[in-house]
From TrEMBL:
<keyword id="KW-0560">Oxidoreductase</keyword>
<protein>
    <recommendedName>
        <fullName>FAD-binding domain-containing protein</fullName>
    </recommendedName>
</protein>
<dbReference type="GO" id="GO:0071949">
    <property type="term" value="F:FAD binding"/>
</dbReference>
<comment type="similarity">
    <text>Belongs to the 3-hydroxybenzoate 6-hydroxylase family.</text>
</comment>
<dbReference type="InterPro" id="IPR002938">
    <property type="entry name" value="FAD-bd"/>
</dbReference>
<dbReference type="InterPro" id="IPR044560">
    <property type="entry name" value="MOase"/>
</dbReference>
<dbReference type="Pfam" id="PF01494">
    <property type="entry name" value="FAD_binding_3"/>
</dbReference>
<dbReference type="GO" id="GO:0004497">
    <property type="term" value="F:monooxygenase activity"/>
</dbReference>
<dbReference type="InterPro" id="IPR036188">
    <property type="entry name" value="FAD/NAD-bd_sf"/>
</dbReference>
<keyword id="KW-0503">Monooxygenase</keyword>
<feature type="domain" description="FAD-binding">
    <location>
        <begin position="6"/>
        <end position="85"/>
    </location>
</feature>
Amino acid sequence: MEESHDIVIVGGGICGLATTLALHRKGIASLVLEKSETLRVDGGSIGVHVNGWRVLEQLGIAAELRETANLVTAFHDVWQEEEKSTLTPVRSTPILQVLIGCDGSNSVVARSRSPASRRAPHAMGSYIGQGGSAALEDALVLARSLARAAAGSGGGRADEPCEKMMIGAATTAIGEYIRERRLRVARLSLEAFVMGELLRAKSLATKLACLAILALLGTKALSHTNYDCGRL
């Protein structure tokens, strides 16, 4: 018997699983396709900033994840070239980052009406540690946009046929998602790029220019974490 699914998510990584969970909480069914048959036994840690935890709260899984998370209370930056280091207490601002055990994620750029979510449209270096948190933001905003489209089409329950409800409004929903994320993603990408350039720079002028841009962006105060993408 041929299966029919109206929303297919390619990739069972951070954003894929968060998106399907968010859609499920809004009463919309989806299918996740992942090429790996089993979970990987290896992996590393991932930093989730406060903006990412806001999304996890909306998804209803923050409390469970906090049981295995390690709270980061300070960042220790070591500059080998200048033989100096700085210690920045996190408690001078709200608690901004924790580390949780997490496998890596692999997403395939989707086609047709499926938006290329997560890191595909905003590939960035790991210099500000926002890859995972930005992926969670993407998942929530995308699910919210699709849920609005479903409600506007007169449906929205997981046990109802979703094709008629969604196809006509899918383009509008994805356009809304892109518009809402554009400035946020541009700022994160710029900040990560400039931070990377600062670390690689040899010229004093280049370093000063990068530091000036980062000061304007509020990187030292971790202002990129003080962001709330809203309720699901």
